[in-house]
């Protein structure tokens, strides 16, 4: 299959899904375009901040994408292009987009509260506590994995096989531009808040800032090593996760969204002008040995490796944790949640086309070893056909990928902080008479620090080691979000049967994958022993599996109960 044909199939399927299935769900669940949203009712200047659709879309898309839709398909391509393509398209439409829309819808209908509060309301307090603990542990995993990815794209030095260290110009340029993005985002935040210009003026200002940052980054690369970048990144997300969303989160995501959309549009153009051949087999085998000779089975590995782009539990945290608190009008939920997910599926298809364009061993021969490098190298190859400089395009694509991951970092750090705080609170908690212990646990600075300290320790393991556990935990989180949303829809007399098949299938996937991870780490523990990072992974895997099973059981019990009339439709 050629790259153009694969691209056309993706555009037709994903575009048709938005126009038909997305609007079907919107009509089934009922959208009130005149209803006041939580962003207006509870505006606090920190988390609840109403924003224009394009601004919230930018936040949602940039936050959910991360490095996942690029890393996942490229890693899973070992099974062949056909299973990867089918899972992205089927999963993206009927699993991921449905979950994201349902999570945002349930949140908006419950005063912008997170999935944790929805579980408390419709499943019970114990379910909420278990879910929030699960979310907190999961957020630590995400921060650790993505912080290492971002630090890797900023790392200004590389060592060859002989041990000779050289500067990496592309990484240095990406680092400078990304740091400038943060400074410009703060300035843009104040501009958007106080200038009150229309969206076209705001867009022109954002694009101008974007161009300035890129130009300065290309001319003044910054060279720091990996360890230094780890520290800088964690200091940044410590600040970003407690800063009001209008001052950094919204404007930075607004800036990044244009960069990311330009990247996707450029990549699509590159596919159509270059029409790359597909050098992957349609299907290889059900079991593929890894570097150590251990078999990797298509089920469940494919479905936990490709999370972002198909279905990702992390999306439910963004949809209900941050984006729902910025929605101005209920009708904006479909393009922001359902639309952003389908856009991410498009990016995953581009990643598949990118890795398929290389013959076996060709990418490594060109020095492209990581997934972002393979993606950037392929898109640069495509666009060089129309005369664009390969090195410039390669640097810009690397910049966009790091922007994805950096955006996800401070969003998930904020969600982790909120999950930790909410764990210690109940709906009847008196804020004025909390004990000193509860006050400490719910302090946003303490909650952020304890979350990031544990994530920093886990970062030293490296994202490649964390990724399989992250994928399993991420997909289990999607199960819990689907269960919670299905219960909400049932209790409020809305149709939720479209969530049942994804929920059951992902249960089978995630319980199998986590069980395999626990078996692998336990076997290593008793044979060769585990270092600190892998020991933490084993502890996390066991806790996540136990918590996930307990929450799922409670939710399924509620889902199987006979309908009650006491819950009126919201």
Count, helices: 22
N→C terminal distance: 48 Å
Largest sheet: 2 strands, antiparallel
Strand arrangement within the widest β-sheet reads 1-2
Task: Report mean pLDDT, rounded to a whole number.
Answer: 87
Number of strands: 4
Keyword list:
single chain, mainly alpha, two-stranded antiparallel sheet, disordered C terminus
Give the topology:
Elements: H1 3-29, H2 38-41, H3 53-65, H4 68-76, H5 81-108, H6 115-122, H7 125-154, E1 157-159, E2 165-167, H8 169-195, H9 199-219, H10 226-240, H11 249-274, E3 287-289, E4 295-297, H12 298-305, H13 313-321, H14 333-356, H15 362-365, H16 371-383, H17 390-423, H18 436-441, H19 444-459, H20 463-491, H21 500-527, H22 532-560
Antiparallel strand pairs: 1-2, 3-4
């Amino acid at each position: 299959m050629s790259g153009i044909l694969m691209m056309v199939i993706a555009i037709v399927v994903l575009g048709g899904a938005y126009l038909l299935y997305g609007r079907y769900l919107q009509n089934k669940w009922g959208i009130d375009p005149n209803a006041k949203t939580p962003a207006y009712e509870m505006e606090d200047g920190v988390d609840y901040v109403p924003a224009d659709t394009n601004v919230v879309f930018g936040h949602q898309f940039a936050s959910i994408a991360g490095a996942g839709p690029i890393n996942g398909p490229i890693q899973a391509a070992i099974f062949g292009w056909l299973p990867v393509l089918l899972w992205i398209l089927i999963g993206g439409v009927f699993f991921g987009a449905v979950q994201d829309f349902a999570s945002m819808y349930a949140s908006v209908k419950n005063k912008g509260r997170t999935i944790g509060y929805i579980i408390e309301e419709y499943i019970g307090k114990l379910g909420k506590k278990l879910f929030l603990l699960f979310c907190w542990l999961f957020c630590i995993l995400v921060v650790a994995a993505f912080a290492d990815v971002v630090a890797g794209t900023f790392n200004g030095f590389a060592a060859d096989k002989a041990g000779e260290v050289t500067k990496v110009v592309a990484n240095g340029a990406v680092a400078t531009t990304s740091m400038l993005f943060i400074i410009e985002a703060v300035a843009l935040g104040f501009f958007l808040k106080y200038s009150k210009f229309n969206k076209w003026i705001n867009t022109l200002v954002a694009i101008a800032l974007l161009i300035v940052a890129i130009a300065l980054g290309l001319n003044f690369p910054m060279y720091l090593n990996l360890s230094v970048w780890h520290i800088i990144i964690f200091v940044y997300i410590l600040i970003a996760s407690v800063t009001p969303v209008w001052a950094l989160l919204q404007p930075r995501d607004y800036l990044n969204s244009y960069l990311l959309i330009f990247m996707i549009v450029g990549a699509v153009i590159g596919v159509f002008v270059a029409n790359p051949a597909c050098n992957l087999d349609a299907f290889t085998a059900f079991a593929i040995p890894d570097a150590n000779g251990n078999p990797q089975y298509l089920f469940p590995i494919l479905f936990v490796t490709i999370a972002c782009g198909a279905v990702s539990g992390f999306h439910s945290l963004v949809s209900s944790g941050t984006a729902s608190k910025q929605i101005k009008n209920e009708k904006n939920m479909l393009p922001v949640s359902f639309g952003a997910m389908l856009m991410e599926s498009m990016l995953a298809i581009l990643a598949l086309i990118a890795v398929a364009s290389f013959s076996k061993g060709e990418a490594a021969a060109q020095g492209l070893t990581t997934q972002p490098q393979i993606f950037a190298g392929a898109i640069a190859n495509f666009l060089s056909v129309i005369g664009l400089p390969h090195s410039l395009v390669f640097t810009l694509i690397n910049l966009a990928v790091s922007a994805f991951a950096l955006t996800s970092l401070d969003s998930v750090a904020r969600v982790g902080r909120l999950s930790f705080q909410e764990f210690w609170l109940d709906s009847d908690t008196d804020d004025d008479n909390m004990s000193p212990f509860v006050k400490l646990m719910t302090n946003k600075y303490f909650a952020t620090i304890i979350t990031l300290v544990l994530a920093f320790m886990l970062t030293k393991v490296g994202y490649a080691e964390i990724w399989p556990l992250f994928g399993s935990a991420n997909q289990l989180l999607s199960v819990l979000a689907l269960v919670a949303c299905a219960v909400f829809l049932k209790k409020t007399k809305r149709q939720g049967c479209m969530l049942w098949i994804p929920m059951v299938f992902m249960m089978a996937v995630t319980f199998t994958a986590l069980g395999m991870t626990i078996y692998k780490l336990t076997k290593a523990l008793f044979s060769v022993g585990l270092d600190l990072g892998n020991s933490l992974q084993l502890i996390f895997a066991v806790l996540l599996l136990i918590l996930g099973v307990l929450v799922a059981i409670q939710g399924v019990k509620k889902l199987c109960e006979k309908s009650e009339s006491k819950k009126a439709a919201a």
